[in-house]
Amino acid sequence: MKGHSRRELLTGLAFISPWIIGFSVFMAYPIAMSGYYSFCDYNVLTRPVWIGARNYIDLVRHDPLFWTSLENTFYYAALALPFGMILALALALLLNAKVRGMTIYRTIFFVPSLVPAVALGILWLWIFNGDYGLLNEFLKFCHVPQPQWLSDPTWSKPALVLTGLWTVGNAMVIYLAGLQDVPQTLYEAAELDGAGWWGKTWHVTLPMLSPVILFNLIMGIIGTLQIFTLPYVMFPGGSPVHSTYFYTMYLYDNAFVYLKMGYACAMGWIMFFMILGLTMLAVRLSSRRVYYGGS
Amino acid sequence: MTQRRRLGTTIMIHVVLVLGSIIFLMPLVWMILTSLKPITETMRLPPVWIPSKWEWQNYPAAIMYGSNKLGYIPFLVYGRNTLILCVLTVAGTVVSNALIAYGFSRVNWPGRNILFYTTLATMMIPFPVTMVPLYALFRTLGWIGTFRPLWVPAWFGGAFNIFLLRQFFLTIPFELSDAARVDGCSEWQIFRQIILPLAKPALAVVALFQFMSTWNDFLGPLIYLMDQKTFTLSLGLQFYQSQHGGTEWNLLMAASAIVVAPVIILFFFTQRQFIQGIALTGIKG
Description:
The complex is a heterodimer of chains A (about 300) and B (about 280).
Chain A: H1 3-37, E1 40-41, E2 49-50, H2 54-62, H3 64-95, H4 102-110, H5 117-128, H6 134-141, H7 153-165, H8 169-180, H9 184-192, H10 197-225, H11 229-234, H12 247-257, H13 261-286
Antiparallel strand pairs in A: 1-2
Chain B: H1 2-35, H2 39-42, H3 58-63, E1 64-67, E2 71-74, H4 75-105, H5 112-121, H6 127-140, H7 148-151, H8 159-170, H9 174-182, H10 187-198, H11 200-216, H12 219-224, H13 233-244, H14 249-269, H15 271-284
Antiparallel strand pairs in B: 1-2
Helix pairs in contact in B: 1-14, 4-8, 4-11, 9-10, 11-15, 13-14
């Protein structure tokens, strides 16, 4: 190695030295150990004991709660993802129109997504309240049946979806930023071809926005599959009858309530491969429909 | 004809936006109104909108909540704990990630890109995978029940922030560094005196996001904090609510408002950085 690049190597390593520690201690080591623990009987108090693939076999073959939590999580994701994506996109399209007062509207729709998850859960517990809840008072006023959001297992997951829809602001802002990048000339060309609002949205906006839509979809998959704080606050123990007992809640309980740490690690790895698989599937399925500018 | 149609469209858009705004604002308005009601008016049908008497003392009552059953809920202590953690994590995140991102973007060394892409790949690992070994590690160090697991890692960089700052550093012309090198500046001087001042907007975004994430974090404190006196606001609020059974909704809403307000106030002062920051995460992804 020449003296010149050797010095650069040392300079570079000096600058990233915090990360060399951070990466090894807080990333690489925990990842490796998590893989090892997932094949062990481990309760953190005593040394891990190797038991082969037992944790994985037990999870899949002998643990109905694993399947319940998995089913709940996918059911929730299947509701929350499409509704959330469509609402965020619709709001962004609406908030991209050129009318007066747009900054105020944008702020109003964004602010709820700032509310910390615990406060969010408590606030919506009060809105969903069976006796004095604002939502059911409103439904009564509209002469619509009023479900027991918090105690009826059919309605507990939709209650979480509704709460989540209130915080679409983040995804909405990402769409809005994407919309700013659509070249105005494309709209002018479409207008010359006689395209109306629908035509322009369908043939210009959505194709140009497709990379952003894919990004929000992947972020949505990662986020919804890991949902924890909101149900933990709103539905203690996954009540009613385990209808809101989600995957990460069961994982947390295994690790820190039952001290089945190896079992929890196995659950973590199964989650990792599910997220990886779904992300790859989303990228694969969308590859023909996503348009990446010139690159 | 077209002009009239355009006016019609504009009115339609306003109608939809106003209705939507009312729906989106309603929960927050309801939170504030409930927090200022006497307890009897929270339990009335049809609901009372405007309190007959504005109960401002609900706020001090929520902050210094004490009862025979629950004991004292020290919200001021929770607030102090949260602020300590915010300051420590924000400082750590800004300092460490600025250094690391500089090393990954402005210095050319062999192996740089491989390590950078490895860093990016770790973003795919969800927290539940590393949760248990991290707990075991901190337990061995005797850090469980202290703040250390919640702030020390922030001083050693994070993949997402490294990525964000590196993107920004790459947009700064390299001629600036070259000229400084010709003038005999050391790499450290270039970093401190040229790059850092130019990177202020990006550093502000990183600081802001870190503050928000520490302020909102629930799972971390839930795992590592044991003693009630060390709780953060998020954890303390959840504890208060779960012990309380949800009867005094006026106090609960006051406590929630206290946790929400600083974040919203911060947003109003930093709106531009905020929106740009979120947009940045989306576009570059």
